[in-house]
Amino acid sequence: MKEAGCYDESTNGVVVMVEPYSPKEQIQQVVYRILDANLDRAREGLRIIEEWCRFGLNSGQFTEECKRLRQEVAMWHTSELRAARDTPGDTGTELTHPQEEHRSSVKSLLQANFCRVQEALRVLEEYGKLYHPNMGSAFKQMRYRVYTLESNLMGYQRHQLLWRSRLYLVTSPSETLITTVESALKGGLTLVQYRDKTADDTLRLEQATKLRQLCHSYGALFIINDRVDLALAVDADGVHLGQQDMPIATARQLLGPQRLVGRSTTNSAEMQAAIAEGADYIGVGPVYETPTKAGKPAAGLAYVSYADQNSSIPWFAIGGIDANNINDVIDAGAKRVAIVRSLIQAEQPTLVTQYLLSQLNRVQPESY
């Protein structure tokens, strides 16, 4: 509402009369309120993301980009827009959703706030065209920068956790699959691959969805064996490919740059090819003969030693490794191992996980 002053002789004083906005001015005030609310929303979301970049990742690069974006948003937050704010009269302040009341992990928190920022920037891009000739294009470019930041940040987090992971559980069919995996996660496991060559897709989708939710609630990475389509369907952290599966570049194109792609290798030539093709990590083995890879001869400890000297990316010794021989594998140069039967069939998966990790933690892994 506008205020207009007039002189009232009966009271020998000034009376303030309130005149309504014109229809055009009313629309203008609504636009101002929309811009004000979304400028606040974008800045708040960016600050939440920035705090994790600063304190969670200790990344100066990501922290600085968040800060620059916040400052650029703030430049558009004029006193004229702030003056249009009407928090008591905003019906949206009472609206909520159950998902807003709980975050299952840091990843879900970050994703929610990236969505929040991106939606706010899109609103600012469109309504900003009604406010300033340059506002629409400015926020369009900011929105693209936030998309890039999200992709780079989520990929960086996955790679960080991959490099820190020492023990990798590759699942096999089990009636107690979900409870066994959770027990291992409680023991400190940070990397799980869902592998089932015989189940139908309905069961695979159901189990993969449950496992992905479980892994992310414990802050662990979740990988799908072979199936890029299933990895996309359940929002897995990546896919693991065998030698006969699709090229790494094709999987990367389908999954996007932020997800992980691993490759099984059995000899030095396969290892070097996987690295050259852009694998994020490799499996090295089978170290010992194993029924998981029936009929495949063991690569032996010599290949473990070769990987230790020649792999520039994280690698996991795999194949017949258990509590009885893990120290032999470590002595050959392994800093990370992948386990199947010795965890899936364990009576106490938590304790087995803790023991295996205690042995692996005796050796220093490479830094990311």
TrEMBL record:
CDD domains: TMP_TenI (cd00564). SUPFAM superfamilies: Thiamin phosphate synthase. One of its GO terms (molecular function) is thiamine-phosphate diphosphorylase activity. It catalyses: 2-(2-carboxy-4-methylthiazol-5-yl)ethyl phosphate + 4-amino-2-methyl-5-(diphosphooxymethyl)pyrimidine + 2 H(+) = thiamine phosphate + CO2 + diphosphate; 4-methyl-5-(2-phosphooxyethyl)-thiazole + 4-amino-2-methyl-5-(diphosphooxymethyl)pyrimidine + H(+) = thiamine phosphate + diphosphate; 2-[(2R,5Z)-2-carboxy-4-methylthiazol-5(2H)-ylidene]ethyl phosphate + 4-amino-2-methyl-5-(diphosphooxymethyl)pyrimidine + 2 H(+) = thiamine phosphate + CO2 + diphosphate. InterPro entries: Aldolase_TIM (IPR013785), ThiamineP_synth_sf (IPR036206), ThiamineP_synth_TenI (IPR022998), ThiD2 (IPR041397), TMP_synthase (IPR034291), TMP_synthase_cyanobac_bac (IPR016229). Mg(2+) binds at D226, D245. Residues 33-151 form the ThiD2 domain. Residues 1-145 are annotated as: Unknown. Residues 167-342 form the Thiamine phosphate synthase/TenI domain. It holds the Pfam family ThiD2. Residues 146-368 are annotated as: Thiamine-phosphate synthase. 2-[(2R,5Z)-2-carboxy-4-methylthiazol-5(2H)-ylidene]ethyl phosphate binds at T290, P291, T292, G320. One of its GO terms (biological process) is thiamine biosynthetic process. GO terms for cellular component: cytoplasm. Pathway: Cofactor biosynthesis; thiamine diphosphate biosynthesis; thiamine phosphate from 4-amino-2-methyl-5-diphosphomethylpyrimidine and 4-methyl-5-(2-phosphoethyl)-thiazole: step 1/1. Binds 1 Mg(2+) ion per subunit. 4-amino-2-methyl-5-(diphosphooxymethyl)pyrimidine binds at Q193, Y194, R195, D196, K197, N225, S264, K293. Its EC number is 2.5.1.3. Keywords: Magnesium, Metal-binding, Thiamine biosynthesis, Transferase. Its cofactor is Mg(2+). Condenses 4-methyl-5-(beta-hydroxyethyl)thiazole monophosphate (THZ-P) and 2-methyl-4-amino-5-hydroxymethyl pyrimidine pyrophosphate (HMP-PP) to form thiamine monophosphate (TMP). Belongs to the thiamine-phosphate synthase family. HAMAP family: TMP_synthase, TMP_synthase_cyanobact. This is Thiamine-phosphate synthase. It comes from Atlanticothrix silvestris CENA357.
